[in-house]
């Protein structure tokens, strides 16, 4: 049916899920020239995830290739909004982080350039899994190179607490999950669920989107751009379930003001039975230095329904005015940082996998024995490894993220969903408001008349 080449005995699950129908030939020798051609400064900015690793990577480039890259972390505020303001102001930005919906918006605005012309792009593209290529493509262009992939919305479980409560049943889908926690609540069990409803751009709004997708729904039609949210369908069922657990006081109102760090710390305290988290937090939650339940954090496996969505980020090249020499330098650095270094190794991507539990869009990283060994260290049980790959392989990429207005809708959802819970509003009214907002955005961006 298909053939692929890979190294490492245990990543066939991911390869089977992502590479079906694709032939992956061994890569050719690496011959890209990635050193700078000028002495001009290159500006690289990103969000605050392990900035010490990013700084060390940049320092290596500067040291080994005589580069002149200036890196700084954007530490305060809503990252996509801050980047948008900086791009509008024509700040000195050359390489930036972005999630796919942000990349689409920036591309449409003319603020970023596709990665199709960077050194080594053809090989990088061939090294990507097909689902990754699709997630990062827009209007026939690949918007950037791989920073990371993960499943966000993985339903993590506290094995210690489950054992104490005598729980052995694993819910297969969202309906079974909510039925279980409501039943536990009726029995007087406290702290059964800590949801991903925190107050950041990828918090409660993303939680709504992935649950609609997991239930088989869609936010928007990819061809007509018409809203697809229905009070009687997956969207309505999602909000009805949220209302039920919020009104039953299973979830504290405090969660709506959390950031992600507070969510991770809360689950790492050992209080909760379940929590929706990013998959890469398994490495944190099973670390004795960072979690009180290290070695006891697992997750609900894929049993026919996906959990969460495919969270990913890219390294983007901005379209600011640069000299021809600096423009070439930026392309070379994007290739070095986002794919292979001067030795032909996916050094940055491999480092993220081994140190931070971050998946890569590249087969050469995901199918390396070192990656498998690193992931297994962050898991509670041996059987969780194959289960992790299966959850990841079945994580959907949101249809709405290919819309130019995705970030605007995301900001709207973030505020609207919090108000819905706090004011106990009717589900039908909220869904109608969401669909109205989509129609307004379609008209604003002239997608429909």
Keywords:
alpha/beta; 449 residues; disordered N terminus
Describe the SSE topology.
Elements: H1 12-19, E1 42-46, H2 51-65, E2 69-73, H3 79-88, E3 95-98, H4 100-108, E4 112-113, H5 121-127, H6 130-135, E5 137-138, E6 141-142, E7 145-158, H7 159-165, H8 174-186, E8 193-194, H9 204-214, H10 234-247, H11 260-268, E9 274-278, H12 282-285, E10 297-299, E11 309-318, H13 324-338, H14 347-356, H15 363-366, H16 369-377, H17 384-393, H18 406-423, H19 427-444
Parallel strand pairs: 1-2, 1-3, 8-9
Antiparallel strand pairs: 3-11, 4-11, 5-6, 7-9, 7-10, 7-11
Helix pairs in contact: 1-17, 9-10, 9-18, 14-16, 18-19
Descriptive notes:
The chain is α/β, with parallel strands linked by helices. The chain is built from 19 helices and 11 strands. Strands 1, 2, 3, 4, 7, 8, 9, 10 and 11 form a 9-stranded mixed beta sheet that branches. Helix 2 links the parallel strand 1 and strand 2. The longest helix is centred in the last third of the chain and has 18 residues.
């Amino acid at each position: 049916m298909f053939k692929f080449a890979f190294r490492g005995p245990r990543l066939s699950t991911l390869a089977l899920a992502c590479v079906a129908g694709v032939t992956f030939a061994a890569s050719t020798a690496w011959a890209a020239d990635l050193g700078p051609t000028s002495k001009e400064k290159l500006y690289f900015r990103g969000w605050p995830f392990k900035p010490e690793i990013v700084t060390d990577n940049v320092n290596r480039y500067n040291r080994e290739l005589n580069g002149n890259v200036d890196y700084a972390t954007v530490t305060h505020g809503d990252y996509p909004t801050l980047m948008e303001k900086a791009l509008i102001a024509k700040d000195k930005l050359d390489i930036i982080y972005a999630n796919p919906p942000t990349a689409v918006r920036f591309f449409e605005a003319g603020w970023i350039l596709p990665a199709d012309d960077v050194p080594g792009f053809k090989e990088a593209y061939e090294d990507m899994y097909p689902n990754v290529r699709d997630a990062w493509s827009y209007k026939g262009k690949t918007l950037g190179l791989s920073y990371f992939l993960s499943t966000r919305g993985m339903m993590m479980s506290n094995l210690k607490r489950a054992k104490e409560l005598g729980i052995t049943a694993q819910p297969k889908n969202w309906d079974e999950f909510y039925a279980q926690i409501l039943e536990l609540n009726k029995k007087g069990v406290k702290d059964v669920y800590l949801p991903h409803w925190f107050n950041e751009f990828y918090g409660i709004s993303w939680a709504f989107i992935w649950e609609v997708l997991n239930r088989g729904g869609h936010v928007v039609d990819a061809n007509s751009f018409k809203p697809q949210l229905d009070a009687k369908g997956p969207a309505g069922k999602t909000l009805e379930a949220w209302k039920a657990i919020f009104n039953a006081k299973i979830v504290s109102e405090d969660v709506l003001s959390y950031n992600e760090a507070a969510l991770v710390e809360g689950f790492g305290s050992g209080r909760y039975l379940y929590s929706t988290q990013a998959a890469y937090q398994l490495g944190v939650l099973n670390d004795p230095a960072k979690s009180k339940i290290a070695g006891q954090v697992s997750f609900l496996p894929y049993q026919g329904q996906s959990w969460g969505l495919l969270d990913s980020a890219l390294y983007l090249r901005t379209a600011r005015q640069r000299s021809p020499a600096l423009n070439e330098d930026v392309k070379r650095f994007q290739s070095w940082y986002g794919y292979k270094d001067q030795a032909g190794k996916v050094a940055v991507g491999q480092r993220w996998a081994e140190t931070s539990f971050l998946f890569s869009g590249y087969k050469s990283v995901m199918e390396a024995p070192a990656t498998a060994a690193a992931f297994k260290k962050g898991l509670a049980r041996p059987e969780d490894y194959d289960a992790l790959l299966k959850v990841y392989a079945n994580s959907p990429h949101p249809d709405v993220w290919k819309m130019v207005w995705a970030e605007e809708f995301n900001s709207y959802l973030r505020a609207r969903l919090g108000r819905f819970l706090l004011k106990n509003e009717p589900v039908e009214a909220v869904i109608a408001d969401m669909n109205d907002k989509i129609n307004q955005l379609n008209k604003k961006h002239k997608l429909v008349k």
